[in-house]
## 1
Amino acid sequence: MKKPMRIVAASVCALALAGSFAMFGCSSNTESTQEQQPAQEQASEQVELQIFAANSLEKALNEVQALYTEQTGVTFADTQYEASGTLNEMLGGGATADIEITASKGTMDTAVKEGYVDEGTRFDMFTNDLVIVAGTDSDITEMTLEEAASGNYKIAVGDDNVPAGNYAKQALSTVGAWVDDEGTVGPESDGKGGTFEGTPLEGMVTEGKSVGDVCSYANTGDVDLAFVYSSDVYRFGNVKIVGTVPADACKAIVYPAAVCAETDNAEAAQEFLDWAVSDEGALKIWQEWGFELA
């Protein structure tokens, strides 16, 4: 009788050990998974994107970034908002970024040519309208491009580094109020260089270093009229739209975006751009600030 008892006891011990090993294995797998998951979450949270963007995007893009951080944990460094030409100058000077969003095709063309961005990631993100504005206290209520260019009003436009200023000069050239150095007119011009001399606007134009400056000149009454984007009216306030520049008077106003060539976060940067033009919450923010998807 003792021999069978030993067999039973040995069997019980074997089963107990097997169960113990099984439990240890499960425990180890669980602990491994638990350790791995926080590590993955932590990696996601550690991604910080640096964006270089056109001035006119500031209010809208800040809100969109906040929403993305809330949803994904990805954070953003101090986004640099500058005139599009200045953004390229910064990248050319050695500054680093993950994403560039400009306010004109021309400046993005330059970024591609100079190797600042990955051309394969480039796409047109938004469209905009060029409008004529006056201060909210102005008596001016309606204005055509021809009237604005008549020489009867002081006007403000952006300088050569400000795409809105380039578009304004293109439009003004179609009514003889700005002369391109190469003799081109309207959409055929790049809206840079050139002169107001010898036109009805000679001595009547103030050029700003940003669309914010241009809006402020109209708001304070330093000028009668200013040429800005429709989205700038939402962004800055204190100005009112008194006219819209005909779409065929200047190049199509688009905001191209691209992932920067030297980024270490190319995948995360692309994911943000894809999300920014597809997420319902992001789309609502863009719309509220006057931007339309291209």
## 2
Amino acid sequence: MAKITLKNLSHSYLPKQSNNEDWALRDVNIDWKDGGAYALLGPSGCGKTTLLNIISGLLRPTKGEVLFDDKDMTTFNPVERDIAQIFQFPVIYDTMTVYDNLAFPLKNRGLSDSEIDLKVKEIGEMLELTSTLNNKASGLTADGKQKISLGRGLVRSDVNVIMFDEPLTVIDPHLKWVLRSKLK
């Protein structure tokens, strides 16, 4: 994990800004300590997802800096930032098995087959996916697909930060409670 600092961060989706309403984010200054757990709270449309997308490198801020352990990462692409971002809706490969979906981020980083197998089975067990590891992801329920998406974010241990962008929204209430307990 890394300490994340946002310095004088502002973002607008408009090419020119003439008033405060033209900004999705204005003058954000935050220090998140290494190893901490933090939450962004606010109404729909207030900029929470925009902020997460800036931290991950999916968006470049209009103004300001994004620092990881005091290193300026503002212009770095998402791959260079080593972030796991889990979105509100499942991001999976339907044509792959559950196992291959969970293994994908690890294979891309060149881990050995034995390391991949160990980590995939650990995350599969935590998310109660063990019985479906050999199934195609396309045949799973929305809950199952979202658990794969969660697993793809949690399977890596080399990330600077794991960001959750309302990933439990589409999960049924009982499973949501179970997953919240496990994620803590």
